[in-house]
Amino acid sequence: MRARTLITILLALAMASCGKHEPKAKYVFYFIGDGMGVSHVTLAKLYADSVLHDSTAMSFTRFPVASLSTTYAHNRYVTCSAAAGTALSTGTKTSINTIGLTYDRTDTLYSIAKKFKEAGKKVAILTSVSIDHATPAAFYAHVGSRSSYYDIAKQLLKSNYDFFASGGFLEPYGSKTDSNAVSVYELGKVRGYQFTSSLTEVDSLVAVGAKSIVYSAPNPAPSNTLQYEIDRSESDISLADITRKAIEVVDNPNGFFIMVEGGKIDWAAHDNDAATVIHEVLAFARAIDVALEFYRKHPHETLIVVTADHETGGLSIGNRENKYDFHVKLLHYQTASEERLHKLIAEYKEQNPKAKFDDLLKFLSDKTGLSKDIELNENDIKMLNDAYNVAFKGLKSNEKTTYSETDPISKVSIQILNSKAAVGWTSGSHTGQPVPVFAIGSGQQLFVPLLDNTDIPKNIVRAAGI
User: Fold this and answer.
1) Among 280, 270, 307, which Cα is nearest to 71's?
2) What fold characterizes domain 27-315+429-464?
3) Where does CATH 3.40.720.10 sit in the chain?
4) Residue 306: helix, strand or coil by DSSP?
5) How far apart are CA 305 and CA 311, in angstroms?
6) Which end of the chain is more exposed for a tag (fewer CB within 10 A), N or C?
7) Is the pLDDT of residue 16 over 50?
8) Is residue 220 pLDDT above 80, yes or no?
């Protein structure tokens, strides 16, 4: 009898819980760390804990939901940012280099940002790279080639989203082959878009009722991106800065959708530059902290999802040379990205064309710690000396990386520092490793267990009740 009564009570409770409506996510933050694998997150957390002694950093790793996602494209297991961005924005797989179109490029795929906009919510798209790059473009554009930057920019002007923020445009005046192209700025003005490089002016534009605002950093790095965090001065804009401003712009009673891309995590990983990767992940984490501040004010109406489009570099914590030892503290001696180091070495070479090898070592010690704080062995010195001979003997020595340019001295210096720290790399490209997924807030339970990247936007829309 007692057992039957207990069963009746349990059934009644179950039915009551089924009848309850889960609160909908009115405010949605979607953070995408481009190229950010599990090891990138782990390395940044190790650095924050053991070098910075900052227990508050990397707070997203303590979200109540932590999972993994597969990332493969329709036609290749190791994906690219265009195909992965489309999967993360539309919930559908597509082919390599394709944005917002089906794999055969015969039909249009629409992003969840568009769905949020059509549902009466405000939309902001933010990135640390250019606004016409693959990941941000996947939320508003439809092109067969991710390198169609001018076409992508023109489609941004048709989105009618409320706020964009980035390092700028790559081809705002049209491609080099199109001499009759009208600038994005002229086309935008006709459509009522407002362009600015001042966060203060953003406030003024909002005050006068501007509908679509496009903010670009006033002091962009090469390729119209935000400065690498490791290179950033106090006057340079950060990803956290534009995230905070985006909330101010789009916060309203109907709710909003904000996508934030940490795009230069990927760029640093393509360069196999561990210290720069760490600082980019930490900058990304600080942008997430801004969203967390908002979440704490609206815990029952906010959803924050953090993930990545793919892993870049095949990053490992531990390498063959160090076996079971790991020396992450050595990476704090690096004070410039490989991209910035390349520029500094070029300037040094121009000013000191007859510099001796020992002079070069003194110069490098201030930027990398090599030879001053980090002891070099015979092989290290040989590698650096060979690089010096190439660079200072009038030979053509610069080489293009995926997103920047480097030289033998910069490349070898970073390589040696990584090796000493016991950071390994298997690739200068992407890998097929699963990527992390973190979630907190209304609908967080939808993001477990193992996911595919196409599941994530579907679950976001479901959590928002759209």
Assistant:
1) 307
2) Alkaline Phosphatase, subunit A (3.40.720)
3) 27-315+429-464
4) strand
5) 17
6) N
7) no
8) yes
